Amino acid sequence: MSSSTVLRPGGGIPKPRRGSVYKGAEGMWSWVAHRITGVLTFFFLFAHVLDTALVRVSPDSYNKVIATYKNPLVNLLEVGLVGAVLYHSLNGIRIMLVDFWAKGPRHQRKMLWIVVATWIVIMVPAVYFMLEFTIRKTFGNAS
Fold first, then answer.
1. Distance CA 95, CA 90 (A)
2. Whole-angstrom distance, CA of residue 125 vs CA of residue 130
3. Regarding predicted confidence, which is higher, 18 or 44?
4. Is the Cβ–Cβ distance between 55 and 83 less than 8 Å?
5. Helix 26-57 / helix 59-68 crossing angle, nearest 10 deg
6. What DSSP state is assigned to residue 10?
7. Is pLDDT at 19 greater than 80 in this prediction?
8. What is the pLDDT of residues 57-82, one digit of tens each?
9. Which of 37, 54, 79, 94 could make a disulfide contact with 84, Cβ separation 3.0–4.6 Å?
10. Measured between alpha carbons, how far is 53 from 77 in angstroms, rounded to an integer?
């Protein structure tokens, strides 16, 4: 029998034990988001190293690749990248506090909401400033 389930009398589907597995609470979603943002950041860094290395092989090709990045879709991807890196770093600090601070596990849920609030406070102006020029350029009034 699994340690995460308890069999009910009379058989049937085992009932999950309380506190033994994530059930979609904040901790699980924080863990999933941390892994996803880490993988996304890794792939960005991989692509960035490749396109930067291209400058040594062919500066003209490098300039062509960089020119393809100057469009609204890539600007949206950059906003996503900033959001992913910011969440990953803030949540990483929270994870270190949970691991190395004696009272960390007791306050981990509160710290997660602080991470989310801090992320929102930083991302709102960041999104505005990152998209402002692209929106003006796309819809007019760009100088």
1. 9
2. 8
3. 44
4. no
5. 140
6. T
7. no
8. 999 999 999 999 888 899 999 999 99
9. 37
10. 21
| pTM of the shown model | 0.76
Query: What are the tens digits of pLDDT across the range 106-133?
Result: 998 999 999 999 999 999 999 999 999 8
The alpha carbon of residue 41 and the mean position of all alpha carbons in its chain are separated, in whole angstroms, by 8
Where do we find the tokens 């910011």?
A: 86
Tokens (6 digits) for 107: 């306050």
Please tell me what DSSP assigns to residue 102: T
Distance separating alpha carbons of residues 138 and 93, to the nearest angstrom = 38
Phi, psi of 15 (to 5 degrees): -90, 130
Residue 122 tokens read as: 């930083």
CB of 67 closer than 8 Å to CB of 91: no
Please say whether the beta carbons of 91 and 33 come within 8 A: yes
- Which pairs count as long-range contacts for 120-123, CB under 8 Å and 24+ apart, including other chains? 122/86, 123/82, 123/83, 123/86
Q: Mention every residue, 6+ apart, whose C-beta is less than 8 A from residue 1.
A: 7, 14
Distance between CA atoms of residues 92 and 86, nearest Å: 10
C-beta separation of 55 from 111 below 8 A: no
